[in-house]
Amino acid sequence: MVTQASAQQLSLKHFGQDEGLGNLAVTALAQDAAGYLWAGTENGLFRFNGAAFRRFGAAQGLADPDVTAVFGSRDAGMWVGTRENFYRIDGGRLTPILYEGKPIAVWPGQVNAESADRDVLLVTEGRLLAIARRGAATRVRSYFSAAQMRDRPELAHIGSIHADADGSLWMACKRSLCNVDRGRVAVLGHDAGLPPDTWTSIVRDAAGTLWIRSRTRVFAMPAGAHRFEERTPGPVRKHVLRTELLVDADGRVLTNTDAGVARWQGGTWESFGNEQGLRPGGGVTAILRDSEHGIWLGTMGQGLVHWLGYGNWENWTSAQGLPDDVVISVLRDRHGILHVGTRAGHAWQAPGERRFHADAGPASFDGHQWVSMVVDAHDRLWAGTYSGLLLRRAREQGQATLIARQPLIRQILADRGRIWMATARGVRVLPDTAPAGAQPETARVPAAWRRAEDQVVDGCADRDDQLWFASLTNLLHFDGKTWEALPFGAALRDREIQALACARDGTLLASTYEGLWRLHVRGVPVAERIDAPVLRNRAVQTIYVDTRGWIWAGLDVGVAVWNGSRWRLVSQTHGLVWNDANGRGAYEDRDGSMWLITSNGLSHVLHPDRLFERAVRKPVIEAALRGGRAVSAGAAALPWTPDPLVFRLANLQYEDRQGFHYRFRLLGVDDGWNETLQPEVRYPALPGGDYRFQLIAVDNETGEQSAPAELAFSITPPWWRSDPFYGACAAATLAAFFAFHRFRLRASRRREAKLAALVRDRTRELEQSREEMRIRALKDALTGCWNRGATMEIIEREIGKCERSGDGLVLVLLDLDFFKRVNDTHGHLAGDAVLVEVARRLRSAVRPYDAVGRYGGEEFIMVLPGLKLPADSGRIDALREIVRAEPVDIGDGKTLAVTASFGVVSFAPGAARDTAGLVGRADAALYRSKNEGRDRISYAD
Predict the structure, then answer these.
(1) C-beta of residue 903 within 8 angstroms of C-beta of residue 929
(2) Please, what is the angle between helix 828-845 and helix 873-884, to 10°?
(3) Helix and strand totals (H; E) in the chain
């Protein structure tokens, strides 16, 4: 069967050793009931929480690290197979399962399923076992009796297993296919259209079709049919560790191939490989559909791959035939042909085709930027370019004709037999029947608009087919007969309009460098700013309003979408081909799908409604540790110790991971909520009492909160706060009272006691004063951070700790970008406000035992013990983000955006103890950040 290469460019995110996946040869994938992803590799088992992997090896009971199978059952937990053992995972430990007193060997393949009564079915050395888990006990039995296997010898040679929803089993048996349904066994072979082969994968899709695969062939039997038909994609000739058949959320079947992955859709196979951006190294070895319908690919040598936006996003670039990756405009004509304008000209794609084509037109048209397109009443395509070419393309000719040369064209509109152009020198118009060489007329606009510098930046047609054009500060309205100029400069406070769109409610939308505005054009011009977290401090570059009334705002960090009730920011983390919106920004297709235009490709959102399906945020408390020992819920009260309590956090969400933060509190200590971006929270030694740690994941853009995760525990009080101790104290107090009563008349004792009290008070006051003076000498008076001298002492002290403990530390040196401009432009008080706020942000983002110092001027230095690079580089990214997250209030209603350049160096035990050299390396990395454009992080070599 012919396999067609998919036309789309995939959005893929790779996970490997930087995230803690120590071995990149992934052999099996599964997801557990909590939401964790499990990856088996040739050297260990790894659990993934969306941010980092945790390895399970010999210390956790995995004696043989070459994992061949991972299986997550609905009720019986997680199971892991190797070539020597089959394990059950319990509380982070792997327990080997024995059958008749012997280990169970598991070979790669589809060797697990779950029976109707929730037993785990396992294929091992040709035999099918049923494993029942009841509480902590596990019972293993042969699924088929000796008598059944004598009657049906095929049942002693099982190779793979699939369980239907009704409980019937499908198994590869010898070189045939066996079906067991309510005790009856049927063997399917030649009579069912199935040739002899070693069948390694079996699945049933949503339509009821049964799929079966060997290493080189795929067959399918539709629901109700009695014979298989071959549906082998090509090519599948290479040896792979295991074959895969998986059904996605839309009922389509995926399988691994020599190229990468093939997907059955519309009666044919689509192939995804190198041309689409999938480079699986030694091949795709595992395919997983997670609980959020996302697709994950395990590869041989390239680690774990997440297919972002699967099922809803398609991406197109020059690899699919576009003349250039910089896309500017999109239009579908009446014949269903999709036209795309790029910075290198025009491309088109007919319905059902998988690649774009370019017209064989004059070479003089090549390289022109097709900024806007429209179809006239005669079914001809018109296009305008930034270079001022007005082109017309008749479908039967298949190439564009130059009609006129104009100033820079930003937008063209078709209306009442005329073609309107928004140009750098006003509004131009000509009939849509004009011949080549015609000269467009300048529209007779009001005199207020007749200024050479009043260029037209955009235009649109409203719901009544009336035309609107925008200059930098004003609007121009044409109702088909007369023109009207509307001055919006004052309403916009002299902000310059960048883009214009006509809304369905009769208002207009305009973007400026400072944000998005709704323009009310009836009566006195009014500009109402649209304020939303997704738009703040972001450049709104394009605007589009679709037939649903949804707003699509193209940003420099993705696309913000308003569906009438909620905003949603979509970016490359969701499947968008590139975060920088470009040109016309968006285009609605006939079926309601959306095309999003970027400076590095074109994205197609197949189901826009799915963008607003609420992401399921699943915060979990991965571990609570005190003194290196785990704190478990429901355990007996913990004895008091002076050790701190550390909570490790995770959010089991695999898309849109950058858009959340944690909110937490420890009831029994503080009823108020705290917030953090870090996956760890630390409390100093807690007194005796009952506690509840609560954790919530919060959406950064909408403020929506997850259900809380909670861990309750108790701590017994220390001996000096126990009831026996209080009793002893009471007895001692009584004895002291009687002793005092006995000698109260002794005046000398009274004077001695009073004098002693005075001396103690004075001594305490002097000690407190001396400590305050010492701290004041070590702190920077303006920011409250450690001063340079104190910071250097801290670095020396922490290096000593590292050498004793074997831990590392990270030193971060940052310099505020363009700080001199702040002082020169806004004054030193504004500069001081910036320094104080940045210091506050840095202190709020670090742990209690980290140190933040002011190194000098606008430079800060941070000492972060216990961190290692590159594993903890995410912590450094978070520090950069918190510095630049919000503008700084400098008073008088003014704010300033602040960024910083970072230099980062790490210290590992065994390295030379050279504090000045360590700071010097961080300083060199900092200056590399400055030289490379600022607002970035550089790491010392």
Answers:
(1) yes
(2) 150
(3) 8, 73
Of 11, 10, 6, 9, nearest to 266 by C-alpha is 6
Q: Say how far apart CA 154 and CA 815 lie, in whole Å.
A: 73
Task: Please name the residues in contact with 783: beta carbons below 8 A apart, sequence gap of 6 or more.
Answer: 835, 836, 839, 854
Nearest-angstrom CA–CA distance, 455 and 432? 23
The C-alpha atoms of residue 854 and residue 789 are separated, in whole angstroms, by: 10
Distance CA 237, CA 239 (A): 7
How many CA atoms does the CB half-sphere of 404 hold within 13 Å? Answer: 22
Q: Is 199 helix (H, G, I), strand (E, B) or coil?
A: coil
Q: In degrees rounded to 5, what are phi and psi of residue 743?
A: -115, 20
Whole-angstrom Cα Rg for the chain: 35
Integer Cα distance of 298 and 274 in angstroms: 16
Quick one: CA torsion of 117, 119, 121, 124, rounded to 10 degrees? -150
Q: What is the mean pLDDT of residues 181-192?
A: 93
712, two tokens: 């309750």
Peptide bond preceding 687: is omega within 30 degrees of 0, i.e. cis?
A: no
Confidence of residue 732 (pLDDT cuts 50, 70, 90): confident
In DSSP terms, 682 is beta-bridged to 646
The per-residue pLDDT for range 648-691, each reduced to its tens digit, is 999 998 887 777 899 999 999 989 999 999 999 999 989 989 99
The question of whether 771 is a catalytic residue gets the answer no
Q: For residue 500, list its beta bridge partners.
A: 510
CB 866, CB 907: distance < 8 Å: no
Report the run of H or E that residue 583 belongs to, with start and end: strand 581-588
Q: How confident is the model at residue 450 (pLDDT cuts 50, 70, 90)?
A: low
Q: Exactly one of 858, 859, 881, 886 is catalytic; name it.
A: 858
Beta bridge partners of 468: 460, 477
User: Nearest CA to 571 among 656, 698, 654, 677?
Assistant: 656
Closest CA to 877 of 902, 841, 844, 849: 902
The first and second tokens of residue 37, run together, are 């992803």
CB 164 within 8 A of CB 170: yes
d(CA 235, CA 851): 58
The number of residues making up the chain comes to 941
- The string of DSSP codes covering 657-678 is GGGEEEEEEEETT-SS-EEESS
Q: 220, 312, 309: which is closest to 268 by C-alpha? A: 220
SS3 breakdown of the chain: % helix, strand, coil, rounded to 5?
20, 40, 40
- Name the residue among 181, 180, 182 with its Cα closest to residue 172: 180
Tens digits of residue pLDDT in 560-610: 999 999 999 999 989 999 999 999 999 999 999 999 999 999 999 999 999
